[in-house]
Write a structure and sequence with these properties.
Layout (H helix, E strand, L loop, with lengths): L10 H14 L3 H13 L10 H6 L5 H10 L17 H13 L8 H11 L4 H10 L6 H20 L1
Helix pairs in contact: 1-8, 5-6, 7-8
Length: 161
C-alpha cells in the first residue's frame, strides 16, 4: 500500500510523496473507477497504453510486429493467459526489467538493453506518461504519469553515460 510512504526533496521523491498522499485519500472503488475511465471506458478509455496505438494510431500494427520479432531471440514469449498485445506499457516495463535482471535467461548487455529501450519504450512511452499526467480522469494516476516521465529521463540519461 502506498499510503504512508514518504518522499524526499528530489523531484522523484516529491512525486512519490504526492502519489502516497493521493492514494491515502482515495477509496479502492474510486481508484478502480479511475482505472476504468482512463484505460477501459465504454468502448475505449481516455488513454490507450499500447505502443502501436501511440506510434500509428491503430492497435496491432507494425510496431507490435517489430516487437514480437525482437522478443524471440531474447527468449521473451507472450504468456498464454495474458490477452493484451505485447506492446502494452506494463508488459514492456516487465520485459525491460527481465532484460536487466536476467529473467529471460541471462542479463542482457547494455547495448541490447539500450536498443530494446530505444525501439520499444523510448519511442513512445514518454508521450504516454505525459498524457497520463494531463488526463482529465487522472487523480491517482497523475503522479504515476510524472513518475513515468522521470524514469524515462533517468533511463535515457543513464544510457548516454
Amino acid at each position: 500500500m502506498l499510503s504512508g510512504m514518504s518522499g524526499d526533496e528530489t523531484d522523484l521523491g516529491s512525486v512519490i510523496g504526492e502519489l502516497s498522499e493521493t492514494a491515502g485519500a482515495m477509496s479502492i472503488d474510486e481508484a478502480r473507477r479511475e482505472f476504468q475511465d482512463l484505460f477501459i471506458g465504454i468502448g475505449r478509455g481516455e488513454l490507450v497504453p499500447y505502443g502501436s496505438y501511440y506510434l500509428t494510431g491503430f492497435l496491432h500494427e507494425k510496431p507490435l510486429a517489430r516487437l514480437r520479432r525482437d522478443m524471440a531471440p531474447l527468449g521473451i514469449a507472450r504468456s498464454p493467459e495474458i490477452k493484451d498485445p505485447e506492446d502494452h506499457a506494463g508488459a514492456l516495463m516487465d520485459m525491460m526489467a527481465g532484460l536487466i535482471d536476467g529473467a529471460f535467461g541471462t542479463p542482457q548487455p547494455l547495448a541490447v538493453q539500450k536498443s530494446f529501450f530505444d525501439k520499444h519504450i523510448g519511442s513512445w512511452m514518454p508521450h504516454f506518461f505525459a498524457d497520463l499526467e494531463r488526463a482529465r480522469a487522472a487523480r491517482l494516476f497523475r503522479p504515476v504519469g510524472r513518475i513515468g516521465l522521470l524514469f524515462m529521463h533517468i533511463e535515457e540519461t543513464a544510457f548516454e553515460m
